[in-house]
Amino acid sequence: MYFKALARYSIACALVALPAVPAVAKAPTRTRLIAISPAPVGQAVTLTAEVDTPAGGAPTGTASFTEGDTVLGSAPLSVFGAGQATLTTGLAHTCALASPAGVHCWGWNRYGQLGDGSTSDHFTPVPVTGLSARAVELAAGGSHSCALTINGAVECWGDNSWRQLGDSSARVRSTPAPVPGLTSGVVAIAAGSAHSCAVTIAGGVMCWGRNAEGQLGIGGDPAFYAPPTRIGGPAKIYKAVAAGQLHSCGLTNTGAVLCWGEGFGALPVPIAGAQSGIVAVTAGVDHSCAITKAGAVKCWRGPWTASSSAKLVSGLSSRVVAITSGRSHDCALLIDGGVRCWGSNRFGQLGDGTTAHHLATPRPVVNLGGPAVAIAAGWDYTCALLSSRAAKCWGYNEVGEIGDGSTTNRSLPAPVTGFSAILRGRARFATSTLGAGCHSLRANYLGDATHTASRSGAVCQRMQ
Questions:
Q1: Measuring CA to CA, how many Å separate 196 from each of 14, 57, 142, 147, 165?
Q2: In whole angstroms, what is the distance from residue 241 CA to residue 146 CA?
Q3: Model pLDDT for residues 164-212, shown as the tens digit of each residue
Q4: By three-state DSSP, how is residue 426 classified?
Q5: Cis geometry, peptide bond prior to residue 234 (ω within 30 degrees of 0)
Q6: CATH fit for domain 84-424, picks 3.40.50.2300, 3.40.1170.60, 3.90.1170.50, 2.130.10.30
Q7: Cis, peptide link before residue 222, omega less than 30° from 0
């Protein structure tokens, strides 16, 4: 009897409906494919997938690269350093891609470089108004700002006295305006003190704005130039560009660096010690730095070395995934999310809690509060985006460039008030299997436990 009763009780329990477990909504993602085209047949082509998400943690897992139904290969996503173009600092203003969408800027705004339609300084982030499409990259100059949209167009705003907005009007603009001639086909942008540059899908570099020191790379006069024009010098295929105060540097598809402008001349010249194996380049006021394939940092000119050749920075021989340069300080992002800075520290821009200079020895930034995923150095201050989506800044803060609602200098990272960042993951895959012709390629993010899958638009990778 006992066992029969137990059996009946078990059956009854089994028939009781359990409450449904609510499904956890996955965060949306957006995937972008970047490729330089055309490329020579037989040469390895590097394909880059960028996956953005406005919510949850960073996207994880893999991205595949396809031509039609054929999978060319796949690569894992990494968040560290992937979002360098989502955060940018100028002379005294900062901009970043915000969650869930849009661009937010803060700090100095005399020339409308915050893009909110005013010329009032803002000590906390304000949204940029009037962008024609979703921004995927940002670049801040001395007193102007630019954005690259998902359509491959460039839009700029702020000071235009040197035609750094790309038109010949010299008119200050407090909201974004299209750059003539760059309404499509751009894959990367950079902004210097009073000039701007862009990399096209074909691997060309176009520059505009001030040229008194040759920073446009077009060979001497005029003192300024608009609309954008292609740089001169040796024929190269570029995949990245950096703009300093009065000079610019480009990174070729073969891993070589060329620079032009003050100290280099009006046409691109190769940098000794950086002619192979370079994966990223940055430009400060009067110096530049680069990252090698091994994750080491090399710098040339400026306060750290009088050499015009790229020299290794002590203590940074590996594990570096991103680099940024300010007026007289530099910072490196490590593969584990740590940040190291060196150089002038008068205003606390090294983030070590002191104002003591460390000209040759990189120092850890303390009190970040979590792993950093992107870094940017302004004139005398520094900012970082964290994996938590928070932004923190430190250093000089005369006009609110720190973004904490004050004008107090900070020698330790301070949270940017009311800001949440887009998080970006990146995967890179190289293939040499493509034959002659146009290959319609896509990047496909496969999703993870908390993020939806997404697919890029088709990109024609032409081989010739």
A1: 69, 33, 10, 11, 8
A2: 14
A3: 999 989 999 999 999 999 999 999 999 999 999 999 999 999 999 999 9
A4: strand
A5: no
A6: 2.130.10.30
A7: yes
